[in-house]
Amino acid sequence: MGNSEEKEAVGRAAAELVRDGDVVGLGTGSTAYFAVIALGERVKAGLKIIGIPTSVQTGDLARQLGIPLTTLDERPQIDITIDGADEVDPKLNLIKGGGGALLREKVVASASKKMVVVADSSKVVPVLGKFPLPVEVISFARTVVENKIVALGASPKLRAKADGSPFITDNGNQILDCSFGKIADPSALSLALSNVPGIVEHGLFIGLATIALVGRGGHVEELS
């Protein structure tokens, strides 16, 4: 079973956890995509939900599928969020942000009663850090922030588009992809990064995930 099949399996399994009347956080990325597709099918079949997308891209997809949408201003408490991850450790700490939506993803996750992570088997790691940690920064402070991140022991690299220009998030910011190597203490690094002026948000999600659904070959495994 390839990664695409694993992603679809966990996306569909997660969509089955959504109940009638739920406010649902709609994640961003290649695995969350399958969950949104499955939710669109359930809405078409009569499920009554309202979604809060974590990116412009996911919002566009949800509208195409007929999923009603709202905002955090209207519904500041979310029943369940389904989102992917770039890495998941045994404590359900995450690295997120490969798709560039980490700020809105973290806000939505923090407002959720339950966060369900969907991932293929390649995303499960014993220790976070193989995947470069995305850090969203304001362009004004980028060089200052880069120097601070180097002092924390990482090699930061500005994320660029195919044409070489800086990648810009939905919030108008830039992203530094920071190679820390193995992150022995994710909580301490999370705090250190949050204390750097100019960093808007980072991709360490600590204590936010409730369960993780992981595709392994022909079955879906639940981690909690």
Outline the structure in words.
With 224 residues, this protein is α/β, with parallel strands linked by helices. It folds into two domains: 3-125 and 206-223, Rossmann fold (3-Layer(aba) Sandwich); 133-200, ACT domain (Alpha-Beta Plaits). 29% of the residues lie in helices and 27% in strands. The chain has six helices and 13 strands. It has helices at residues 3-15, 30-44, 56-65, 102-110, 142-151, 186-194; strands at 23-26, 50-53, 78-84, 87-88, 94-95, 112-120, 133-137, 155-158, 174-179, 199-202, 204-205, 211-216, 219-223. The strands form three sheets. It has a six-stranded mixed sheet. A four-stranded antiparallel sheet has the order 8-9-7-10. A hairpin with a 2-residue loop joins strand 12 and strand 13. The longest helix is centred in the first third of the chain and has 15 residues, at 30-44. The protein is globular and about 55 Å long. The model has no long low-confidence stretch (mean pLDDT 96).
Question: β content, as a range?
Answer: 25-35%
CATH level-3 fold name of the largest domain? Rossmann fold
Structural category is alpha/beta
H-E string: HEHEHEEEHEEHEEHEEEE
Mean pLDDT rating: 96
Low-pLDDT ranges: none
| The CATH architecture of the largest domain | 3-Layer(aba) Sandwich
How far the N terminus sits from the C terminus, by CA atoms, comes to: 23 Å
Helix content: 25-40%
Shape descriptor: globular
Characterize the quaternary organization of these chains. Answer: single chain
Please count the beta strands (DSSP E, at least 2 residues each).
13
**What is the radius of gyration computed over CA atoms, rounded to a whole number of angstroms?**
17 Å
CATH class category of the largest domain: Alpha Beta
User: What count of structural domains?
Assistant: 2
> Spatial order of the strands in the main sheet?
2-1-3-6-12-13
